């Protein structure tokens, strides 16, 4: 079954919120090439599992499959018009300190992150996601 507006499989559209998070995360990670290379190795196998769900050609290399997942997820986010920054949710630069402090207190999520996150790291992500 396909989503009427986008033409994507309904099962893929059900993951739209996660897709937006993946697209935004990838955009943030790509801005820091060293972090990107470290994290890419960690998440590449996860991306390949997603590739199977999306029907990406299994004969491609792991890197190519992961790259294709990112391309397809970002296309899905654009097609479904999912915001990729926080301004759509009326978040301003004045909110960054509060958001940073709040995020830093959620240890159950930080403990699961593949890269250790400092408050400065979290702030940098919010600064990227909240336009000036």
Compile the SSE list and pairings.
Layout: H1 10-13, H2 16-30, H3 33-54, H4 62-79, H5 96-104, H6 107-110, H7 119-129
Helix pairs in contact: 2-4, 3-4, 5-7
Kindly describe this structure:
By secondary structure, the chain is mostly helical. The chain is 63% helix and 0% strand. The protein has helices spanning 10-13, 16-30, 33-54, 62-79, 96-104, 107-110, 119-129. It starts with 9 loop residues before the first helix and ends with a helix. Mean pLDDT is 74; it is low at 11-20 and 28-35.
Name the features.
132 residues; flat
Beta-strand share of residues: under 5%
Question: What's the gyration radius in Å?
Answer: 16 Å
Count of DSSP strands: 0
Q: Helical percent range?
A: 55-70%
Helix/strand-derived category reads: mainly alpha
Short description:
The protein is mainly α. The protein contains seven helices and no strands.
């Amino acid at each position: 079954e396909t989503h009427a507006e986008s033409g994507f499989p309904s099962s893929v559209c059900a993951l739209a919120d996660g897709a937006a998070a993946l697209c935004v995360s990838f955009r943030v990670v790509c801005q820091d090439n060293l972090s990107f290379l470290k994290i890419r190795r960690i998440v590449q196998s996860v991306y390949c599992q997603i590739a199977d769900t999306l029907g990406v050609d299994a004969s491609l290399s792991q890197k190519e499959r992961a790259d294709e997942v990112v391309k397809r997820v970002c296309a899905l986010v654009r097609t479904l018009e999912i915001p990729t920054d926080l301004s759509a949710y009326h978040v301003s630069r004045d909110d960054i300190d509060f958001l940073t402090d709040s995020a830093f207190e959620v240890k159950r999520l930080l403990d699961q992150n593949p890269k250790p996150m400092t408050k400065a790291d979290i702030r940098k992500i919010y600064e990227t996601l909240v336009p000036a």
